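STRUCTURE REQUEST FORM
Protein name: PspA/IM30 family protein
Source organism: Streptomyces zingiberis
Requested output: structure tokens
Priority: standard
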Amino acid sequence: MKRMGMMFRAKANKALDRAEDPRETLDYSYQKQLELLQKVRRGVADVATSRKRLELQLGQLRNQSGKLEEQGRKALALGREDLAREALSRRAALQQQVTDLETQHQTLQSEEEKLTLAAQRLQAKVDAFRTRKETIKATYTAAQAQTRIGEAFSGISEEMGDVGLAIQRAEDKTAQLQARAGAIDELMASGALEDPSGMAKDDIQAELDRLSGGSDVELELQRMKAELAGSSPQQAIESGQSGQPGQSAPQAQPAQQPENPQRSGPDFGKH
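Status: completed
Returned output:
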């Protein structure tokens, strides 16, 4: 089971590696960094808001403290020491709150400064990553285009391989049809196959065609012999025609006998 699980994970990893596009991965990483930067910025804004609220509260408490101090002075001026004591007591309580809020304000202000610095650094990293991302994407796209062009020229790409196979099959079928047509022509010429049009050659015409072809061969042979012997091709052809087999020598015409002269002489019949 462990082996099967390992094989399944290996095949799945290989399939994912083939399906993975580095450009999409880079874009996804950049999107995540932008989301993180946005969260940091929202954190800075929240801390700044809290700091501002503390500043408003501090302003109100300080105003109340100043008002109580003024009331205590008036009470003392009027001889109301008890009222002055009460006003100073309330002022002391407010002063404690002001001190606590000032401490929180300093903490928030320090946290705001840290988050602001972190946001600035993260912004710089995101900008640098974006520049590098676009460079890598452009380089990857160019390399992919060069690879496809090289595969197209070499014929090893899948698309060009399919085209090459189609061309090879077409050429094979064409050669097969040509061979079949030539074989049929030879069989029809030899008489092994009959012409369905009913215009097949008879035996006499076939024999005459064969003899004509043989005569052409003999004439060509005589011409070549004449060229080798130094005689003119026309003389060789004439001599070849006179010596071809199957042709009888011209018979000598019999000498013309002179007409018998009529005997001249006395007419013996006449007495």
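Reviewer notes: Confidence is low (pLDDT under 50) at residues 243-271. The radius of gyration is 62 Å.
Form closed.
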